[in-house]
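Z., the sequence and structure:
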Amino acid sequence: MNHHLRGPQLPPSRGPLSAAVTAYLSGTGPLPRPADAAGADPYGDDAQLALYLCYELHYRGFAGVGPRFEWDPDLLRVRGALEDGFLAALRADTPGHDSLDDALGALLVEPVEGTGVTHFLRDEGELWHLREYAAQRSLYHLKEADPHAWVLPRLWGRAKAAMAAVEFDEFGGGRADRVHARLFADLMTDLGLDTAYGRYLDAAPAPMLAVVNLMSLFGLHRDLRGALVGHFAEVEITSSPGSRRLAEAMRRTGAGPAAEFFYDEHVEADAVHEQVVRHDVIGGLLAEEPELAGDVAFGIDATEYLEDRLARWLLTRWRAGRSSLRTPLQVETAHTS
């Protein structure tokens, strides 16, 4: 069976780097030079798409792209140059906390009057805002928890056991219909979106690609295991209140029962996960490797930094009455309440 024929189509390029990577994967041209990759804008559309293409080979790949490309040495050199530029920019640009305790403490404080994306969607969001938000987040949520699973072989003892327990919940607790990626696909159906994996890659702007690429960057490198744990902590600790606001947005707009359920599920599950991640995953990791505390803090802070960049992109456009997407969104089957 030709398994390499499955998967999403390669997307249109966004510049010379992504064009060259796409050509190489499709067998029609050479790769860019690593030096060219190293000199690209690390947050720009071209570099972020090129990096996303490289990373996606470790997930489901692309239609017509053979599995040998996953570990192609020439492609890995280009990916390495892109990663070096992205990581260097994050280390230079991310506002850092003085300690891990400070970074975790900041996550636990909810502002009295929030002005973020989930506040906007709860208070003002219309169905078209929710559809755009879901389309972009689908780049991660249709593989939810997959990047974090890479950290499991790099942990041991209490941290490994706790991380595996949380991941087990993310993967449905043994039930295929409760896998969180499946629940998000059901949410997309309620919103009239296509649930095909990778369907909205071309629509997603660079700030969204950077958010997803960060998980793969941390997950694929053993020396960044502390940063991945920090990323996971940021996601789990902030998820419950944000999910509550999104569930309210889904109810207020009549998005549909599956759309409401996805976020209701995260309100409950992630409130429990937050405690496990803080006390057992982070606590267990640092009991074994206390020198990784700074990396955990960096993972938290870098995640916050990229999420803030994405929030500015979304809110600037939505408040101006404009789409946040690169390409128009087609509603496949509109939900009717």
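DSSP finds 14 helices and no strands in the chain. The two ends are 42 Å apart (CA to CA).

Let me know what you think.
H.
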